[in-house]
Amino acid sequence: MSLLKVNHLYTDIKLSDRTIHAAKDVSFEVNASETFALVGESGSGKSITALSIARLLPDAAKITQGEIFLQGKNLLEYSERDMRSIRGSKISMIFQEPMTSLNPVIKIGDQIIESMIHHEKVPKAIARNRCLDLLNAVGLPSAKRNMNEYPHQLSGGMRQRIMIAIALAANPDVLIADEPTTALDVTIQAQVLELLKNLQEELKMGLVFITHNLGIVHQIADRVAVMRYGEIVETTSSETFFAKPQHAYSQQLLNAIPSIHKRGLRLSVDSEQSVESMSSSIEMHDYPVLNVDRLKVHFPIRKGVFKRVIGHVKAVNDVSLKLYPGKTLALVGESGCGKTTVGKSIVRLLDVTDGDVMFQGQNLLSLNSEALRARRSELQIVFQDPYSSLNPRMLVGDIIEEGMVSLGVEHNADQRRLIVVKLLRQVGLPEDASNRYPHEFSGGQRQRICIARALAVKPQVIICDEPTSALDVSVQAQVLNLLKDLQVELDMSYLFITHDMSVVSYLADDVAVMHQGVIVENGSALDVLQNPQHDYTKKLLSAVPKLHLH
Amino acid sequence: MLFQPVILITDALFFALTTVIFVFVMIARKKEHLRRPWGKVIKRTTGAVALVVLICYYSIALLDSMHFRLKLENVTQSEYQYSNEILSVLDVLMASMRTQVEKTFSAPLAVQLFSKEMVQQDDGSMQQIYPRLKYGGAHLDDPLSEKSKDLVKISIRAIVMAILCWAGFWLLTVWRNSKSKHSSFSASLQRFVSGDSEYPLRAIAITTGLITIAIFVSMFVGSKYHLFGTDKVGQDVFYQAIKSIRTGILIGALTTLVMLPVAITLGAMAGFFRGWVDDVIQYIYTTLNSIPHVLLIAASVLLLQVYMSNNAEGFDSLTERADLRLLFLCLILGITSWTGLCRLLRAETFKLREMEYIQAATAFGVTKSNILARHIMPNFMHIVLITVVLDFSGLVLAEAVLSYINIGVDPATHSWGNMINQARLEMARDPAVWWSLTAAFIFMFTLVLFANLFADVVRDALDPRISGSE
Amino acid sequence: MIAYIVRRVLYAFPLLLGINLITFVLFFVVNSPDDMAKNQLGQKHTTAQQIEDWKRERGYNLPLIYNEDASAGAKFTETIFYQKSIRLFVFDFGSSDSGRDISYDIANRMWPSLTIAVPHLIVGLLITITFALLIAFFRASYIDYWAVIICVALMSISTLFYIIGGQFIIGKLLKVVPISGYDTGLDALKFLILPVIIGIVGGIGSGTRWYRTIFLEEIGKDYVRTARSKGISEQLVLFRHVLRNALIPILTGVVVVLPLLFMGSLLTENFFGIPGLGSYTIDAINRQDFAIVRSMVYLGSVLYIIGLILTDISYTLVDPRIRLS
To answer: Which residues 148-177 on chain A approach chain C with CB closer than 8 angstroms?
Structure first.
């Protein structure tokens, strides 16, 4: 008998104007000591399925049909009261956001012992001792002190460990982990994954792991189910899945993942198609188009009665970069390393403390605002979040035109409209997009609009600040393909800021690895990736969940 | 000319506001991102019903704002001379109620005065009786037996006429609907009756039906009786309550008109420029906010009173003087109420200026004023609208309280606060004179209640945090 | 922390100066003392001498900000600005236009104000929070729907009607307690009950609705889902997890008004004849006693600023996330 069995589950979400069938006829089984991965892109219904199992759905969502058996008993027949005795003691959950999933005003220890006391009726003193053991087990450095701290005093990785401790507090049989590492940096992610795997083996739990990241699946899952549009399209063992995916969508997902082996190839979106000519068309140039020299950006820390400056946060400390014409330089680093600050300082969205940014023989940092404006059209930036980078109150056409107007690239309104039409075609959007508002477009389409907006002023260099990190993997593939095509077509250079090693390995000509405000390693992409010198680069590379595909 | 139009300052501002609203509606119909949330408001039954009620109030206030002087009769043809009395269109429509002034108190629908008086009888003897009213039910020979029958008769006539008008209008609407949608009239009618439509037409129809009936009944009955009785000097209470609508609406609406430009400009500037601009603006609104609002209003109005009594000769008429005081009150309320919105907008601008589309605009070299006008202001307008609608009911309530402690509108202005103030002591009489208070209560409560319900719906529809991500 | 409080207190001085300037301009520049005198003495039959006497008795005969006739330092001190406005900084309110010592009146009258305002605040808070929690417990049900409608209806009724209606029903029809008046000691109780009850009932609508919004916002947060996933009961989720977080905005909202309790409520005290600071202010407004109104404006502002500082401090006490530097 399987530990957990979901049978023909249907869950609906009722919105004010329509109903979404978030889960449709979902069936799967999980055995004890097994890791079962539920994979899918955003909106595929994987989280709703997880919440349905624990019956923790938001008010608007309802299970309409199906059965969920835990050790042979149908949970959907339980009263809410009986269900509470299951949650925490038999089924536990870990959520995606460690920052918001812990109660900010209750001490960590109290949050952990809560379910022990509730389910096992143990005295508080014993519970606290067990809590201490648990904190040690999840790898908190000073468990005793941590128990009396509040969540905000710990980092994201630490908080996710505490979430795990809470979930394990009452020894559950099934642990449901809903994207537990998505909000974490890749090195932290590796640690948390290892911890989960070890604990699972030790405690012989059934682990339902929900993720969009196939690398993680490859690393920890025994069996895999792929979800799309609320339905499971394929359920199989992990080996078969990666060796021989059956469903077309599974194949498409695997092919969309950028990697070093796919350099020069188009990432498959629908079908395999190679563009061999790409890398060969780029010639070597000796002079960098953009030369960042000893860039420093410090933010003051103020303290005391009169807010005197008592020190500085050295967000960027002595960073030098060279970007050659027609090439892509990847600036890699984890969150908080200062890579975005570098990008924004180059286009002078932030004030720079010291250093030079030489662009076509001129130092951008010493230009006055008039002279800077004249240069702006040649240097553009594409941002990370496709939702906040488009003004929701403007038509797409106006958004794309704005730069041409303010930078005086094209004064004739009719001409501008023609250019907009051309750009939209170039980035693969329908012509009538210019008369619509951003909210009508999906994340990937919005990122295309952002790229069109940057292209409108005919830049030579585009700074891409994590342009694909908010996108699903198949959409990311489309955007990466587009960027590559445009580079060849228009002979542009990219400064590509990212945290994702697979994107770097797929796309970059040169790589600079950034850590705590400084560049730790610098060189051609193939050298750095295959033969890393600096410890941090090695750590970063080894933390990436590997997909060894033939 | 039979009359000479008079435009008081508040009238002018009120017309300006009406124009602004009209223009906004016209623009909003074209702009998708404006039409969508407002469409949501009207699609909710509560929102649609509240809007209908509010439009009724607003229309009455608008009618009451069209002022003029009538031409005096028996003056030679060659020269025109106009009466000193300033009237409004509403006054003309309610002429019978305005002019039919009794001697003193009378209960609602009464035919006699409220208290006994010594009256000389036909035979010359003096007797303590309840005298008949001059106007209320004067057409009856024997009020005791005839009154209730007469009331029923008038009411039925009014209701029948109301329903005829109402049904005519809605049948026409349904018919036009069926034409535009190319469906049969009976099918459209059936859908209408069963409430199957994109907008809650049935609820709107019921509301307008009830309002039409209320208007017809009150006009028919009101011309023969005093619907809510009369006050101490014999004035019709129903007429007073209706006249108070203009004051209430004006206080709520003009105050916003006064404060909006200040709050928007300063709020956006503080949040966008930060630094010393932010410090100065924050200092100004914290200082103003620190002074208890009632006291600041009290102090200002006191000073105005002193000024007016010392410069009494500067005012042409009582109406103009009262009008100036009303305007001044709106100004003062505006000064005390802009701080809240300004703080909200400052915080929102703070957030907005970190948005990536603002940074993108900066990277495109868009000037700061253009960023403010094109990127920041359109994106916090929903906060402005929500605040305006939320504040409205509070201002109507505030007027009553301020007038009650004599720092509100001029005592000569019709307002619910003044009605309450005058009627308050009458509650202590035995038996109590309750009708003035009741009338003020009903009209004020209805306005504030529907304004509050409307505000709720507007907030739900416009606040992106509540309406969910899209 | 200490540095933060010191900075907040220092920041209060420019604010107080600003308030002082506003009151000065309002009371002495916009309306000259001559205007006040004319207004107080009546329009007709006032001679210049009478006005001069009236001004001298009250110290309004000095120049506004600069006295050319006085010697050295007195050029600035022998002025209305110094005598009437700067002295407010040390809470020297002077005497009212009718000649009474304002500080003495304030000290006497703030206690009756407090005896009404404090029970009103505490009991009202308990009741509204309880109601709001109950509604939050039954959220998205018909109970919730109708409770909100009732709240909106309750808050659409003017305070005036609550007071008049309450006085009429409880005081006049049922004759349970006297309609108005005040007494000292325990006898005050029977005079206090009615205004306190009416005050609470009048505030239930808006209070409950406001707290309900806060509760619902908290209930939607991720940590509540975590708490539920532990299997603890809904009541425990509400009381242990939601309430603790929701109390932060609620408490800090209350702290702002704490100092202002001294000022009392204008309407309640006026209607019920309570000799507190609220009715003091109203009487002054009706008598057009500018000295008292000016003092009360200043006092109210000071109390509000104290409230702001207390709010900031209370945040650091109740919210572990905020450490002020």
So the answer is: 150, 152, 163, 166-167, 169-170
